[in-house]
Amino acid sequence: MKHHDSIKQADQKLTLAIKQLQLWHLPATPINYSVSYEFVNGKNSALISQIKQHLSLGKKLDNFFINELFQIHVLGQGSFRDDIITDIDELITDVQQSNQNSVKCADGLIEKIDANVDALKSQNQQKINNAILQIERASKSFKQKQQQLSKQLLISKKHSLSLKNELEEVKKEIYLDPLTGLYNRKALNKHLDQWTTEDPHKSIAAIVINVDQLALVNQKFGSLISDVLLSKIANKVGSYVGESGLPIRSGQDEFLILLPEVERTTAGEIAEKIRQGVEKLRFVSSKSGVRLPQMTISLGVNDFKLTQNAQTIINYTRSLVTDMQRSGHNKLMVAS
Known about the structure:
The chain is built from eleven helices and five strands; from the N terminus they run H-H-H-H-H-H-H-E-H-H-E-E-H-E-H-E. By secondary structure, it is of the alpha+beta class. The protein folds into three domains: 7-74, no CATH class; 82-175; 185-334, Reverse transcriptase/Diguanylate cyclase domain (Alpha-Beta Plaits, 2-Layer Sandwich), CATH 3.30.70.270. The protein is elongated and about 105 Å long. The mean pLDDT is 85.
């Protein structure tokens, strides 16, 4: 067992984990149970802290949040795999060794040429012939060793390409939401840290997007249909973001777009285009041909400096959207 519990201890914690899921109003799925077991076990401090912080903000624990906890704190996808780090170390060592061997071969050839320069200048034909022979031998040896090094470098190049592809897959696991393909909250924190390092006074526009009535769609058509709709909406949202922007899935039915060095008014115009683009989407079930309900989004726009608390600004913008949805949907609010 992962926690080295006795059968009695495991049974006790299993009972506590089930009761905890009931308190959280979550079904006893394998993923939910794993997170609950970690919580009641009391040893995964990062997971426990994140759950308590989430609940302290008055938020409910939903599938998106639980899955994110499971990926990061139970499966441990927030860190690189040891074998990849080992491969990188070995690749660097191979390239360094090849460079050292290449320099050594070149130095040996130069030494042979330097040692025979005087003999080439002499009037003694025998000395000249010997010098030429020594240089020819050194040149032949140099070519052979260079061919061997070229083969080794070719192998290293193939290895590096394979490693690069594997690293890209690891990045997807760590920084991308598997359902929508947008960035996740870990990527959000990474980019905020990176931008702060580049320029702590950089201004960022934030667009909070909430999918209207997704919970009702989920209840009526099931999670499979609602996931498909959410994925298509995410694809449309991401299409309006340039290379410098960051589209994030920040909640079960919420997206967040960060736009560096974009004014609030401009961000508001982008948000309006996104709203209109999603409003025009039409969904039809590929199996039954049944026309699915039209989906809309509600958006809030704000901006902040990196010297400010980004999460506070985002939470405030999120509250604008929540308040707006109480009186209707498919609307846009730009913070005053």
